[in-house]
Amino acid sequence: MSLSQQTPRSIEIVPLTLHIGAEIRGVDLTKPLPQQQVKEVRDAFLKWKVVFFRNQHLDHAQHVAMARQFGEPTIGHAVLGHLDDYPEIYSVAKNRLANENRKAQMVTPWTGWHADITAAVNPPMASILRGVTIPPYGGDTFWTNLNAAYMALSPTMRAFVDGLRGIHQFGNRGETNHSDEYNDRVKRRALESEHPIVTVHAETGERILYVSPSFLKSIVGLTPRESQKILEILWEHITRPEYTVRFKWNEGDIAFWDNRSTVHLAPTDIFESDFERQLYRVTLVGKPLVGVDGQPSRSIEGVPILSAAEELKMLAAAE
Question: How far apart are CA 70 and CA 113, in angstroms?
Fold first, then answer.
């Protein structure tokens, strides 16, 4: 098909930076999208890694329905729970369980950056976050493009990291600065997996520097000192500003990102204010990742993340 014969795009895509992030206009996410728009949104999602929709005032049911157009929703959070009436939704509140030990953390430039639930053998394919209660300022979110970061490494470093694998774990074994509730949840759904340090994206074929700072604990086959220093080089690299986008939320905004090719960060500035911040997240079922050598992710502990319906059946059977 010639360029003149191509179907005109039905949505407007406004890039926000050179490497990552675009705002999508001309859609109404409160109702099902036409198939052409579903395809165009997904194409933009794959190209720009995270796409944003302004002024979309969805309720919980509409949020789940919107997500289903792009994949199968998981349970809200495999470890930290979900909304009682909407098992597909995780409450991203300011003072939630996951943030309780933030004051005890060692702070580095990469502290807090993560992809969602990489300790599972099949981390979510995508996450869809909806803003409900938004502070007048503060509480922004950052994302970074892990393909752009990989491509910016030297050829020598790329060749080195292509053959590495890393251990991802939810929480640190033996931690004492979490509450009993947090520790009990982590124990009930222990997750630990080995992923390639460089993955090949299932849809684009791009090479991804898959180094989630919050969950990647060590590199297989290296000494602890070697592992820590290599990881620090990579974590510092992926968070360089030129690979990132910063999003200022408004009530009704939605961010939809590729959890396979990005990591993201919610800066802790919100805790220095009295402002409330409430968002809700739906994640989509993913597959084990594959390395440059064709070898997939390997589970060390725990079971894969299933659809919300399958997870509920599994939980019911365990009681």
Answer: 25
- Catalytic center residues: 114, 116, 264, 281
198-254 tens-digit pLDDT: 999 999 999 999 999 999 999 999 999 999 999 999 999 999 999 999 999 999 999
Q: Specify if 3 maps to a domain.
A: no
**Pairing state of beta strands 298-301 and 192-196?**
antiparallel
Residue 312 lies in a domain: no
Domain-located, residue 1:
no
CATH at residue 26:
3.60.130.10
Domains of the chain: total: 1
pTM of the model: 0.91
What are 37-68's pLDDT values in tens digits?
999 999 999 999 999 999 999 999 999 999 99
Decide if 2 is inside a domain: no
- The CA-atom distances, in angstroms, between 233 and each of 115, 179, 240 are 18, 32, 11
The closest alpha carbon to 135, from 281, 278, 264, 280, belongs to 278
* b/e burial code for range 74-90 (CB count within 10 A of at least 16 → b): bbbbbbbbbeeebbbbb
